[in-house]
Amino acid sequence: MIIKNDQPLEFKHIFGPVPSRRLGISLGVDLVPHKTCSLNCVYCECGKTTNLTITKKEYVCIKSVRDELNAFLSKKPELDYITFSGSGEPTLNIGLGKIVSFLKTNFPEYRIALLTNGTLFCQNGFPNSMLDIDVLKISLDAASQKTFQLINRPHKDLIISNIIDSLVKIRKIYSNELLIEIFIVPGINDNDVELKKIKKALDQIQPNNVQLNTLDRPGTETWVCSMEEKKLSEIASYLYNAEVIKHFNSKFNLSRFSENSYSKNLLNALKRRPCTKEDILRITGIEKKELRKYLNLLIEKGRIKEKKMKRGVFYVLKA
């Protein structure tokens, strides 16, 4: 969203800026339709994958994405990153490299991050145009095919050993910051056998840093639960003192939405991830006393619902 003449201009492919637990203040770029992905992870905060695919194409118009970025970034907003992420796998879009080149040419002052599951590099390689990405963060929750299928529920043609091999090759040509994020699902990938295999994969990939995550927002499957902090710390110590991702605290406030557009923009934010009231306040800057009014309105209309989690009450987009 961008403010012009006190009215927000609406965008289809960029969102935020949002406070990211990983990257600080991040402008998101979504390059695929909602839940178009090569995986159907049990913990995904965006919900079940509805288009499970490994087919690469221009899922959203690259020219439209460039136009939106140009309109937003020309105002010189303060950002920590421009991040390719959202509600699906960004590397499915064949135009990703073109957007990276556009940003580096026209807005070189901004750092770029790519959040990816890394599954497509074993089939399509790592394009030279993506070597300019400043931070490449790849999810790797399993190192055995059985666990890969249990947690990530991949497209039938994806083999975890091939994916790991491709990440090893990427590390040899990619000289910027490479992060591996591991999502711990209690009872599945927290055992000694699987962790030993993951550690071996990390030895081969040689990332700059390893990050551990566990359930913080409502996931796709209700049986997925959060790993207790003590056990998570033990796993982090075993995996080369991995960083345990903490909830990002920020006093950042985006300009307030106008009343006419607030509900629509709130729905757009919840489409990409469930949020607590505190999350929404950080993202939007709306006054606390006003927030309840909009939330109640959307609940009454059946557009969103409340879901209690360990970290608090989350507001979730209804299917």
Q: Any key phrases for this structure?
A:
2 domains; 34% helix; 20% strand; 319 residues; TIM Barrel; disordered N terminus; two-stranded antiparallel ribbon; alpha/beta; eight-stranded mixed sheet; Arc Repressor Mutant, subunit A; globular
Structural overview:
With 319 residues, the protein is of the alpha/beta class. The protein folds into two domains: 2-250, TIM Barrel; 253-319, Arc Repressor Mutant, subunit A, CATH 1.10.10.10. It contains ten helices and 14 strands. It has helices at 62-73, 96-106, 121-124, 145-152, 160-173, 192-205, 229-238, 259-272, 277-284, 288-300; strands at residues 2-4, 7-9, 14-20, 24-29, 36-37, 51-52, 81-84, 112-116, 135-139, 177-183, 209-213, 243-244, 304-309, 312-317. The protein has an eight-stranded mixed beta sheet. It has a two-stranded antiparallel sheet with strand order 1-2. Strand 3 and strand 4 form a beta hairpin. Helix 1 (62-73) packs parallel to helix 2 (96-106). The radius of gyration is 19 Å and the shape is globular.
In short:
The chain has 319 residues and is of the alpha/beta class. Helix content is 34%, strand content 20%. The strands form four sheets. Strands 3-4-7-8-9-10-11-12 form an eight-stranded mixed beta sheet. A two-stranded antiparallel ribbon has the order 1-2.
Secondary structure topology:
Elements: E1 2-4, E2 7-9, E3 14-20, E4 24-29, E5 36-37, E6 51-52, H1 62-73, E7 81-84, H2 96-106, E8 112-116, H3 121-124, E9 135-139, H4 145-152, H5 160-173, E10 177-183, H6 192-205, E11 209-213, H7 229-238, E12 243-244, H8 259-272, H9 277-284, H10 288-300, E13 304-309, E14 312-317
Helix pairs in contact: 1-2
